[in-house]
Amino acid sequence: MNDYKSIISEIEKNQFHSFYLISGTEVFFTDRIVKLLVKKIVNEESKHFDYHVLYGKETNVNNIIEVARRFPLISNYNLIIVKEAQYIDKGLDDLAKYIENLSTKSIVVFCYMNKVFDKRKKLYKSAFKYGKVIECKKLYENQLPQFVNEIANSMDLIISPSNSKFLSDSIGSDLSIIEKGLKKIKLALKEENEISSDVIENQIGFSKEFNNFELQNEIGLRNFSKAYQIIKYLSSNSKKYPIILTLSVMHSFFQKLLIFHSLRNPLKEAPSKLGINPFFVKQYNLASSNFSLKQCERALTIIYQSDLKVKGINSSGFNHFNLLKEILVKIMIL
User: Are 191 and 160 in contact (CB under 8 A)?
Assistant: First the structure.
């Protein structure tokens, strides 16, 4: 993300490189760089003469070089955007040679999408030396609130750290959807500029699809706010996530966590004893530090009593959301 920020800052200041090699798995950043370059360099008159969009499946290196050698007719620069460049697998060494003696009046943006360009190739080394190399990585979940804050600030919106997290938790990790969500909020706010949790809930809702196993994980981490959000989503989609299934997953989780506590060497024995993938051992290990043996037993009792309510035993009825909320609160205060 640092590369992305520095490049955006340079372009905003009209500081351009003659060759950009952009690769990586986060398409949002690539698109933003391209859009900003087009905004800064191309105008209504020059777009018919000095702006070219080429596609990897339809072009080749010789064509890219031929267009890049042209002198701009109207604009200060001849801008060439090569989209889906990952489909070009021949002649890349020739493009590397072009970079070593490139035209300063042309700007080539080589968009190698959905994977990282091989650093061993000549093209990478030439672009690194004479142009600009940018790797656009997917953001980690803990980086999303900062991204929300930055996009909000760019729209002259104010959002608190807690609401930045609330919004990213609600929408998920698709950056383009986060941006669209903030644009929707800006329209709804009209002349106001501060984003509240109520506005987020009213305008965004909960567009990220959660499931019972994410609920299990957040309970194991004692993350009340995230678990509360998930039960709200699950209860609003009761046909897809019936409460009986949710209770079954929660019961199975604490039952396995109870067994985890009894193992002599839990990290080694857990996969076979609990019947889980080794990948999930870390999850149970963290949960075991948050819930003692006795707390697991009490959690199982809470879930069992709730299951009786669902089945109409000692109860005249129940509300899906209220029952899950009651379970969650009781487990979290154990």
Answer: no
